[in-house]
Amino acid sequence: MKPKVLVTQWIPDAVNDAFKNELDLVYPSKEKTSYSYSKVVKIIGEFDALLTIFNKADKAIINAGVNLKAIANLGVGYDSIEVEYATTKNIAVINSPTSVTESTAELAIGLIMASMRNIVAYDKSMRKGEWTSTAFEDKAVEVFGHTLGIAGFGRIGKSVCKKAQVLGMKVAYYDPFPLNPDDEKEMNVEFMPLEKLFAQCDCVSLHMPYTSENHHLVDERLLSTMKKGSFLINVARGPIVKESALVEALNNGTLKGSALDVYEFEPKISKELLACENVVLNPHVGTQTMQVRINMCNESLNGVLQALKGETPYNLVNKDINMKSRF
């Protein structure tokens, strides 16, 4: 009998077809879209694994999943899963870290361009029948020649770096684990401590994971150190930035603009942030293309399949569990 995997949202046939010989994937219809939380709690006990798509896997779900051997997340971030508790139950936690890289980096570059060149605001005024362009105005900033600070220099941060350099940007970076000098030279990047990065760069783009340590990492104090007229981009996780502090920085002129794909209280966005005309807002769509989402499902489910076989997948999050003892 094939292992049963509960998938919390509808998935395309291409995903099911790729695994139909090895996994029994159970998921809602396209019309229903998603299983409710209570439904997942009710039926999870029948399943060997869970693929959670933008849904949480908390203690209640883990406790109800008496046969669970793996929990997978669609995406590189796994803050929706109670990883430590899953580890106490010897349940493998899987993510999809590689298939998100280029699409998320692309969106970051798009948001940098949209924000610095004022593209969205121009579009809005045109749709109102306004032709606001004049010979000399200070609404946009050229990307070329300006310095991009990348906070978090993992796969996505490095991809953003390469793309930004093609556009003629200088790149500095911060990461808790800096590159060695040879790699920095090869990538033509400069390491800066976080505060220096925010103080000296024309635009800062966030690409670190969300942890309890970096909750509100970008707060009033850090934002106040930024160059007047600079830009902040966030395609990482919303709670890294204190939203009220960002609103203040946008309103007092510290920031010329910002562009966001993630929010502190998403999907809720504060009315104060919505009122800011110098911020570009996207609904957490860094990986939102059909092919990328299929690739993410495949990456997560490949990890699940390995875990169910007692193997250690490369995308195992809680690497200290005993893979063999779970059977």
Features:
alpha/beta; seven-stranded parallel β-sheet; 2 domains; Rossmann fold; 327 residues
Secondary-structure topology with pairs:
Layout (H helix, E strand, L loop, with lengths): L3 E4 L5 H7 L4 E3 L10 H7 L5 E4 L6 H6 L5 E4 L9 H6 L3 E3 L6 H16 L2 H9 L19 E5 L3 H12 L3 E5 L6 H7 L2 E2 L2 H7 L2 E4 L13 H5 L5 E5 L8 H9 L3 E6 L10 H4 L4 E3 L8 H19 L19
Parallel strand pairs: 1-2, 1-3, 3-4, 4-5, 6-7, 6-9, 7-8, 9-10, 10-11, 11-12
Helix pairs in contact: 1-13, 5-7
Provide structural commentary.
By secondary structure, this protein is an alpha/beta fold. It has 2 domains: 4-99 and 289-326, Rossmann fold, CATH 3.40.50; 101-281, NAD(P)-binding Rossmann-like Domain (Rossmann fold, 3-Layer(aba) Sandwich), CATH 3.40.50. It has helices at 13-19, 37-43, 59-64, 83-88, 101-116, 119-127, 155-166, 181-187, 194-200, 220-224, 243-251, 271-274, 290-308, and strands at 4-7, 24-26, 49-52, 70-73, 92-94, 147-151, 170-174, 190-191, 203-206, 230-234, 255-260, 279-281. A 7-stranded parallel sheet has the order 8-7-6-9-10-11-12, sandwiched between helices. A 5-stranded parallel sheet has the order 2-1-3-4-5. The longest helix is centred in the C-terminal third of the chain and has 19 residues, at 290-308. The protein is globular. The mean pLDDT is 95.
